[in-house]
What does this fold into?
Amino acid sequence: MDTSAESRVPDALRERSIGRPTPLIDGIEKVTGRARYTADLPSDGALVGMILRSPVAHAVIVAIDTSRACAIAGVRAVVTGQDFAAPYGVIPIAQNEWPLARDRVRYRGEPVAAVAAVDRETALAALAAIELRLEPLPAYFKAADARAADAVLLHEKKKGNVERDVDHAFGDVDQGFAAADLVREQSFHYAEVAHGQIERNGALATYEPERDRLTMQSTTQVPYYLHLTLAQCLGMDSAHVRVVKPFVGGGFGHRVEPLNFEMVTGALARAAGGVVRMEQSREDSFLTHRGRPETDIRLKLGMKRNGEITAVDCEIVQRGGAYAGYGLVTILYAGALLHALYKVDAVRYRGYRIYTNTPPCGAMRGHGAVDARHAFEAMLDSMAEELGLDPIALRRANLIVPPYRTQNDLQVNSYGVPECLAWVERASRWRERKGTLPRGRGLGIACSHYVSGSAKPVHWSGEPHAVVNLRLDFDGAITLLTGAADIGQGSSTLLAQVAAEVLMLPLARMRVIAADSALTPKDNGSYSSRVSFMVGNAAMRAAEALLDVLVNAAAKKLDVSPADIEWLGERCVVRGTDRGLAFASVVTAALVDNGPVTVKGTWSAPPETQGGRLRGAAVGSTAGFSYAAQVVEVSVDQDTGAVKVEHVWVAHDCGFAINPLAATGQVHGAISMGMGQAMQEETQYHQGLPLSPNFLDYRLPTAVESPPIDVHLVETIDPLGPFGAKEASEGALHGFPPALTNAIADAVGIRLTELPATPDRVLDAIVAKRRKDRLDATRAES
Amino acid sequence: MDTMCAFELKRPTNVAEASALLAKPNARVIAGGTDLVPNLRRGLDAPATLVDITGIAALTALDLDRAPRVIGAGATLAHLAGDPRIGDEYPALAQAAAEVAAPAHRNAGTLGGNLCLDTRCVFYNQSEWWRASNGYCLKRRGDTCHVAPHGKRCHAAFSGDVAPALIVLGAEVEIASVDGMRRLPLAALYRDDGAKHLALAPGELIVAVHVPPAATGSHSAYGKARVRGSVDFPLAGVAMAVAFDGARIARLDVALTGTNSNALSLAGTETLVGRAADDATLAALGNLVAKQVSPMRTTVTASNYRRRVASVLVQRLLRNLAAEHATD
Amino acid sequence: MARRLLKLTVNGRDREDAVDDHALLVDHLRGIGLTGVKQGCDAGECGACTVLVDGEPRLACITLAASVEGQRVETIESLAQNGRMSRLQAAFHEKLGTQCGFCTPGMIMSAEALLRRHAQPSEREIRAALGGNVCRCTGYVKIVESVQCACAAAAGA
It folds into this structure.
């Protein structure tokens, strides 16, 4: 028995696992090139899967003749929509998409048939041999056209091609406007944008005909939804499906719903009775899409002279594309998150999600709320100018004091906006510099917020929202088993830190096995910034359960009551004595009665955070809102319209930074993605064909024009978050576009109501302003 | 979807051998491949033979001590951007080379390749599936230009950065074929037809560029409008060479890229000779550009912007070079 | 279909492989197990496939394998020596220059070429050298920091 306790480490000096910058536990694989992404998985002899896509935007499928393709030597499988048992869709009440189109195609690029062949050339030949007979229908590429009274419906029973309309009113909106000193109304237009994850889509499916079993490895953020959907679409018992997530090269929402190619690869593997590899192109990613929709917003705000918001009236139309996907969630988020950033007591929201003959939109980082946040923060800025108020002072006039219940039943338990504003104000030297910069240079500010996981899961099954298992065996290693998909955000690292911290053990003792349905408990997936908060809480509880087992075992071994055990991680002692046990001995003791230990931790968002009075009100509900404020400094070339972001100062209230290194990196990434959308990214279509399905014309930011970004993490210690933590990867994104256009307004006096702020749009606005200024001057003279 | 065809790759070690190979039907030149390979991968060409000229040592030689200077067509863009002798004598050339795409492209891409860059268009630089769905286009396999459906010609835009710089520097290209060598003023290499923008016969190969020594007191520069700080092709690129007599313009040459199917030599600059580079002259020059460029909807950025920014860039270049001259 | 025996020095080892004339360097390298060479776009637009050819960054996805006959090719797999990560690799790991990791091999190879040429580059030079390597995760801040950290480590060594 180990009884020495001479080197007991005081808690304050113990090396903690949380709250310190921690490199990713899978980082070494990434920097050495050893990390295996889906396309890197060994698969000798795998068949090559390929998809045939519709060349037209809207048509009845009269016939798909695959007989010639089937007859080609080396073709092992050809599948069409008829080979699937059911349609799919990530939202259970809105499943209207088939992995391969049946009866109708609804967008250019929609998959219609697929082949598996012994090599690429044969697969290409097979695709070319498939005969499609299509009878064209009128196609609609703009929301307004699809809403026309005489428009053909894309989906039956969806009148006016409206997938979902929302009509929410909270508080007395008319009274709010009546009480306002200033009421303004403005229209905005936002281009559609895409995720641009660098890894291309792909899947590797292995089907064992003898056992009727399917193993799927894929580029997914939601292995569990994929598992369910594979079983559903292939008509298989889900017990016969296994989903494994390899390294994934980013997601940003592109992969938060099962995607057609995944079910197609599964179907091909089954039809061929073997292994099929599907490698998709960058163009395929843009056709699969699921990005942020083209959006029109009309926003009306009422305000007191001191800047206090009295009423909000907002109408939003989203061009949703051809299928439901997450669409109804997107349109609901857009309205719900008008609340919970500021104290607003009267809000009216009308939202319309429209079906069009363009690739389906979906969830993208900042889901639903990014465009509306731009409109809101841009109007706050222009109204502040009219009222002669400092934009920061105006925001301070509208702060929430937690705990706070919003008009739409969202719960705010921690709120770091005051600290965020204070930091960016100081760091950017706002007071000294705002209004004093030379023409062409400007500062802009905006605030933003986001959920730490949707409090109501997509599937209302009643199960816990998150589950983590911890295993302890003879070797003393602790294995954390989670279904959570690490897609680069560092979730596996964070979960290991949380468990290590509770157990007071070094991180080196932890191993994480993530996202293999044969080994790990199900997890809803990596979306809506839910993993740190929800799975982090489950990891904490699992670790507490394991600690309980260990303390009890130590107590039994030392023949004392568990309450007498002082747990120190690598060792424990009987309180107030030198008697103790080394960790290895505790492990041995713990295994004596029952063998290897497996414990479980679960967590669910408390009912009071789940929202609820109204239909659709669960969307936007969360157990913890993150908050952010940022100041953007720009210089604007008034002759070319080119905008350069000189600097960004951003403060993000992440509750508590379990891994400050990763949290800071997430904020950087959110700012960068916000910048791409705000300045240069947009998908454009020619009769439904994407004009820029590549990384040349779809312009992701490069290192050259990307600005320095100073990040400050505000820690408000949320009462429900694990160690007080909230999300860190999305909330700062929403603020960038408005902070940018507010800075441009400060620099050259134009207020952009359309994004992205490409040089042509900026120059148009500058020229229009010059013209107007001249006209005004002429009028003043006459 | 990737639809690159199979072909035979030949790697000659001298120009004569290369010319003989290029005389064969359906043979194409490849050097750095940064333009050609993406196009091949999209099925925009299907050569039977590719003649890789990167093994011909003579093509990478630079002779900067004699007049005219001779720059081998195989010199990489990275070399042109980094060679201080070029930067000193021909700033426009070094600047243009440095503005091409991104570092790895410049390490592979060559002078000859950039001069012979294929024209670009959003209706052309797309996958086989995409173009087939769109009924192809006038430049390849189709009979309609989607940019100007009622027109008779292809409007794809020439987007090489280096050509306008060398045009204003008075360069000639040396062209080899099995029939021997010929020289052509660089400006004459280009035609304003996107489907046939190079005045090269099948089998011809640019082997070198001849540039007259820069006159003492002359100045040159290149300006490029792009959305991002790297990678992008020019929305408009403008090169200028100018000489002053005191404060007056003694000679002025301007060429543009990204706006037309050719590398456009600006006409009418002689009308500005004798004038100071004042606001009126700048405006007149800007007008010349605005009138002569004809950007069409070949990029995702609006064509009227490309016209406007070309006009801004040219004025900026003249202002800057006049200032540079004043401090000489 | 035209094929040839291709001699290359890959990561310090001479090798000879049968390849199609039209084979891309990216496919050839991945085919011989060097899957650290990534492909993120459809041709030369993202930089994920960046490798060094005779010490200079090149895009393997738009380079014909046969066109670099006889040359030295280096991939991310060559940087760790005797099981130890290179300074750049260690810095990208410790400073979080990598998030999802997909652009990382190409990014590090571009940085490697820069540092061989220029031991103490300015931030502007670092950003310019990485201008063709697109990262969607980091906003480049920690990538630049990682390169600077590797320079500092080299200077201190």
Remarks:
- Chain C has five helices and five strands.
- Chain C has two domains: 3-78, 87-156.
- The longest helix of chain C spans residues 141-156.
